């Protein structure tokens, strides 16, 4: 007699029958605010550590400036966006850029194999714009409801307090979309040599909106003028024996010497829409937009030229949020972006406090005027209008007034069945990982195979076989080399059936069907 499996519930005791997908309007979104299961899950996750950041705890930062070219590629930037920070050529906008690792604690080594945070605060004339990204241009998951599970699996075991390879791959084996990111992270690209030789990327898809109210999809990238340099596992180990903070030291010392690191900011642009001609959804964070079809278009230059005067007050208390946008830059229906927009600012209110935006490092350079009052650690009262008695709007007694509306605002038409959806466009979950494997130089592939082989030797057999099955479907050589390294029969791995509820390699999920106004099929779920 088999033991009955315990059922996952919310903290209210409600059974959770879909822990994979946000509620959204149709498959592509947008997500809806009444995602109670997600909100309960992500807001609790945001409060799991105090006062250290749950993720991105280990980091450093520097001040600098961004100068727009006034063009996007060869076209005037105003053709695509009304954001002044991107359209005004030659204007230097102050910035604060924080680099970080993701999983390790505040004193963990900077040689860790881990994505790197690349978070920029632009102090624009229209208020702050935060662009919160990573060095790699893809991510492990494409739905924000999975973020707490992912980080829990990658963090140390709650009992042994050890990071375990089997926990990482136990999570990954159920998420084929993660194979692309795993291929990047387990290669030398998973250990940047330092922050000055590292790319930056928004990862998320945004929209640019122009004065006519027209929108295009876009991704932001930052290419280091010094070039990209990464470390093998052996090189990283040798550095870590001498210095666990080598990247912080390198950045600080370079700026002190007057060797100011510089990046060129670029965007990729795609017309707004589902783009059914592609084998991936452009809103899927686990996929790259092919640069031969969607080239990197130069937008401006970013230079770091000043170290913090107080590390804690600036680098540690700096608070970023993906919802901090300026006019002309807007949200797409990217489900990771929409989930992060709630989570990041919620985390800052918990970690730094309700008035974190009053701290100098987080406050905009232009005067702020709100009707928000009080809260813990209030030290500045924003009286706003002419009459300090009026902290509401509208008022006829001298309070604040709404700003003028744009002549042509952007209005997205949304229609669809409300439910929980996985993307049906899953063909490229294996394709892009295989392409990345084949694109690596021989030494990068050798390091990748060595790193994953060492990990899989620490995993139970069923996880090891499933991961080899996954990698073989990405590229037969990829899977075969791992099987040889681990010492298992590749035929035993290949004989495994496809994952239940997931698309078979090279195939899409069946599109949902509808009846009587309600979604049907395995790719949707009624809401009870």
From TrEMBL:
Cofactors, names only: heme
Biological processes annotated in GO: hydrogen peroxide catabolic process; response to hydrogen peroxide
Active site residues of this protein: 56, 134
Cellular component annotations (GO), alphabetically ordered: cytoplasm
GO molecular function, one term: catalase activity
SUPFAM superfamilies: Heme-dependent catalase-like
Residue ranges constituting the Catalase core domain according to the UniProt record: 9-401
Gene3D superfamilies, per database record: Catalase core domain
UniProt: heme binding residues: 344
Enzyme class at the top of the EC tree: oxidoreductase
SMART domains registered for this protein in UniProt: Catalase
Region (Disordered): 496-528
Top-rank taxon: Bacteria
Alphabetically ordered keywords of this record: Heme, Hydrogen peroxide, Iron, Metal-binding, Oxidoreductase, Peroxidase
EC number: 1.11.1.6
Family of the protein in this entry: Belongs to the catalase family.
Record protein name field: Catalase
Taxonomic placement: Bacteria, Pseudomonadati, Pseudomonadota, Gammaproteobacteria, Pseudomonadales
